[in-house]
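Reading a protein record of the kind used here takes little practice once its layout is understood. An example of such a record is reproduced below.
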Amino acid sequence: MAVAVLCSPKHDNRRQGRDARRFSLPTPSFAAPVTGRELSERCGVINLRIVLCSAILFVSVAPQIAAQSDYQVVAVNDGGTITGSVKWSGGVPKATSVLINKDPEVCDPQGLKKRDLERLVLSANGGVANTVVFLKNITKGKAMDLPEARQSLNQKSCRYEPHVLLVAGNGTVRLRSSDPILHTVHMSGASDYNLPFPFANQSITRTMNRRGLVDLRCNAGHVWMNAEMMVVSHPYYAVTDEDGNFRLTNVPPGDYEIEAWHEGWKVVGQGTLYDVMTQVRVQRPIFSEPVEWTKKVTVSANGTASVNFVISDKRPELASNQ
């Protein structure tokens, strides 16, 4: 079954914590005693000695905030499948890249001098990678089965891998660093951890208590490092592969609204922050807001529905959904 219903795409202006101020780090206060955990989370604004000490103090437990969800897990005996793609149409924007000006022996082993920001990754056939496709109005269905690879982050050659993560609400994200230099994973949005990784092969886990979008950035001077994490309430989410394809399985029969969400591919400014290693002010990119497109889809018992999105660099209202 092919779906060709045009719905109104729109900018995602609901993103939590998404403005230029998120790049301005707070001034630390030492007036009151702080716990090991608080030292760890403040490491983005204090010197490296505290960063190194706080790396030892990760044993404290984050407060548990129950994620509210109306989703119900039920047996799905006649589920269908939704397959499709996200394709690019029209001229391709100029690639956004940043000069690799720190730790080139680790960050730039191939001597390329610049690093692509990976905000718009297109295949030879126009497929758009790293687009999140999900069902918006589903209230019951299969149990959580998000891909394991999307629930773990590695810092390798000064890149976050993968670029887009999917984690269940109240689920665990696993973070590690393969690099022998200081990195941080600074989360903003639905989560606000600021986790230092001063040693190679260090691993940390965190429970994601609040659903929503989480920005991931490095505060250790590697200003090109960026990724996104969605903390979700149900399993009907997929991230498009390198050819722009996606697949949702075991969907209960019914009518749904399906959304394609992209993080946004434009650099709209520069923000200032302190490199926690050198305490020098550095500039890093501020990105445009995410963009989303929605359609209707009908899933029949044991059937397959096809939904294809076509996006472009035009205003989102003018992008075509086919």
User: Anything to note?
Assistant: Residues 48-54 form the longest helix (7 residues). The helical segments are 36-41, 48-54, 104-107. The domain at 2-19+35-59+78-318 is CATH 2.60.40.420 (Immunoglobulin-like). The two ends are 13 Å apart (CA to CA).
